[in-house]
Specification:
With 293 residues, this protein is α/β, with parallel strands linked by helices. The protein has one domain (5-163, 189-220, 261-276): 3-Layer(aba) Sandwich (Rossmann fold). Helices cover 40% and strands 17% of the residues. It is built from nine helices and twelve strands. The strands form four sheets. A six-stranded parallel sheet has the order 2-1-3-4-5-10, with helices on both faces. Strand 3 (59-62), helix 3 (76-96) and strand 4 form a beta-alpha-beta unit. The radius of gyration is 19 Å and the shape is globular. The protein starts with a strand and ends with a helix. The mean pLDDT is 94.
């Protein structure tokens, strides 16, 4: 391995893990270790300790998460095991080994009743089990490893894995009309953009001790699920009719925040970056999905 720093990416088969793997060749000065839950069950403290003792891990990017928001309402223990307990285990072991930790969290830690974009220091009060499990994970990490970096993000999609964009593309082919919620406001995040931001943090961490605590990241601009779906439809020229409905007309097991727009001014200042608009990034993703096909 030589003098290269080693980056461990957990949850390697998920959307974000897959995007980091996709760009990893652009970073030849690092060795990457991509692990799935089968390779490294992060909820198993002994397994994680053994893994870190065998490998010299300089950076850990924790993309592993329980993300089935509605199912979490009945699988509470499983959601907390992965999103909270396992995150705490990783933080403790990263702290012991002086491994820099980057953990991915969510807009669902907020209550969703704000009227302005949410800042990192704004009050948290999740509406569902998934949100509570992610918030507990944040708390355990910062308690056990105060120099960890936590990135809250929202409405993540990618050409990999399961997500809203790919679901819409499938439904456009299967249905003549669709109902999509039009009173939940947020910011879509292209996982490829988030992957690039994470690597910017990694590159800067060696010489910057201020990359700690909580930061928000999403693409720029505000939309609803309905207008997000419309933008996908326009790109692929679908004839499927999309009908706007209210949250009350589309009940789900888990309550969703009505407003979870993230304020990204902190991360822009930290990294001196411009953040792409959600529409531009959506077009890039859809183009890559079209190219794959």
């Amino acid at each position: 391995m030589g003098d290269k720093a080693t980056i461990l990416v957990t949850g390697a088969n998920g959307q974000l893990g897959s995007e980091i793997r996709h760009i990893s060749a652009l970073y030849p000065s690092y060795d990457f270790l991509f692990t799935t839950k089968e390779d490294l069950p992060i909820e198993n403290k002994d397994a994680v300790k053994m893994f870190f003792e065998k490998q010299q891990i300089d950076y850990c990017i924790n993309c592993a998460a329980y993300t089935a928001v509605d199912k979490a309402e009945v699988e509470k223990e499983k959601a907390f095991l992965i999103n909270a307990d396992a995150a705490g285990i990783l933080a403790s072991i990263c702290s012991d080994h002086q491994t820099k930790l980057i953990h991915i969290s969510t807009d669902y830690v907020y209550a969703g009743n704000a009227l302005l974009p949410l800042k990192e220091e704004d009050a948290v009060d999740p509406l569902n089990v998934y949100g509570w499990s992610k918030l507990k994970g944040e708390e355990l990490i910062l308690n056990r490893y105060p120099s960890a970096l936590i990135i809250r993000t929202s409405w993540v999609y990618s050409s990999y894995g399961n997500n809203f964009v790919k679901t819409m593309l499938r439904l456009f082919k299967e249905k003549e009309s669709l109902n999509v919620v039009n009173d939940q406001y947020g910011c879509p995040t292209y996982a490829a953009d988030l992957a690039a931001i994470i690597m910017k943090f990694v590159e800067g961490m060696e010489n910057n001790n201020e990359y700690v605590g909580i930061v928000n990241y999403c693409n720029s601009g505000i939309t609803t699920w309905f207008y997000f779906a419309q933008a996908i439809k326009e790109f692929v020229n679908s004839s499927c009719k999309i009908m706007p409905v209210s949250t009350s007309q589309y009940p789900t097991a888990a309550k969703r925040p009505l407003y979870s727009v993230l304020d990204t001014s902190k991360i822009k200042k930290m990294l001196s970056v411009d953040i792409p608009s959600w529409k531009d990034s959506l077009h890039k993703c859809l183009q890559s999905i079209t190219d794959i096909k």
